[in-house]
Amino acid sequence: MTTNTEKIFAYLDAYADASEEVYLEAIIQACEDWLSGVANPVSAAPITKEEIRRGIQLAILKGMKQSVQPHHQMTPDSLGMLIGHMASKLVKEERTVALLDPAAGTGNLLYTVMNAIGTGVVATAIEIDDLLVRLAAVTAELLEHPVTFYVQDALRPLLVDPVDMVVSDLPVGYYPDDDNALNFELMPSEGHAFAHHLFIEQSMNYLRPGGYALFIIPASLFETAQASELHPYLKQKTVIKAVIQLPSSLFQHTVHEKSILILQKPDPEQRQTPDVLLAKVPNMTDAKAMSLFLQKIDSWAEEE
User: Fold this and answer.
1) CA nearest 158: which of 147, 146, 149?
2) How many CB atoms are located within 10 Å of the residue 40 CB?
3) What residue numbers bound the domain in which 100 lies?
4) Do 130 and 50 sit in the same domain of this protein?
């Protein structure tokens, strides 16, 4: 039996293959036809937002492998769903949750988190690549998610009100604009700044007191030459809530391994718990181990 996700991917893939447009451009047109009612890949069954997200992202992944976006690495679904689970537990009973992803790409991580939180969530997405924004925007329309998009360098001033939560798979590498980087505390005294360091600082600037930031970071974040600048910043301007090591099996090479860093913006009106959750995600194919790990995460979030 063909699933809804498979039907959506088959529709988008067939449309793009038959089109004279570049594959990713054709996906946008296919989604617009779906939105307008010209086409409906899943007409006879109820459909969930997760099925829509997965179907579209499968097509985008295929398009990225054969077109102009081979450098863009989409956040793996298993990792996105883990972030979404943590985010949904941390927001607790808040009626409206405002999210920010300063490096949104096609929106895959952001929408996974929005789907996990459920109703009452709005978001702002920042992305410098116009094509990725167009893919993200048409996906948001199909998911009926209220998202405001900005096509810009996320490390420049943003027209964004303080948000309740930041989620981001941080871009890793050097930030080339040294003049702009001078506006950040994490600009080193010599050499170029790490973009992922600046994204952390920028995110904290737009987070409300007491709000959380959930970052996917390089596993080596605290071991690099610029860690000496990062450590005092995190100690003075944030509350480190958790550092969670991801399984090596998720990554092809050791150098690409990632972790999850959860920060909170200090709030003078809130009592801060001093303990930092240090954990390692088990092999995600081990259902029993994952269940125990999620129970640990849930207990931790309840104490926050």
Assistant:
1) 149
2) 12
3) 77-303
4) no
Q: What angle do CA 277, 282, 285 make, to 5 degrees?
A: 145
What 3 state SS string does 43-103 have? CCCCCCHHHHHHHHHHHHHHHHHHCCCCCCCCCCHHHHHHHHHHHHHHHCCCCCEEEEECC
CATH of the domain at 265: 3.40.50.150
Q: Which of 95, 103, 102, 104 is nearest to 122 (CA)?
A: 95
What global pTM score does this model have?
0.94
pLDDT in tens, the chain (304 residues): 789 999 999 999 999 999 999 999 999 999 999 999 999 999 777 899 999 999 999 999 999 887 655 445 677 788 999 999 999 999 977 779 999 999 999 999 999 999 999 989 999 999 999 999 999 999 999 999 999 999 999 999 999 999 999 999 999 999 999 999 999 999 999 899 999 999 999 999 999 999 999 999 999 999 998 999 999 999 999 999 999 999 988 887 787 889 999 999 999 887 776 689 999 999 888 999 999 999 999 999 988 7
DSSP 8-state code for residue 174: B
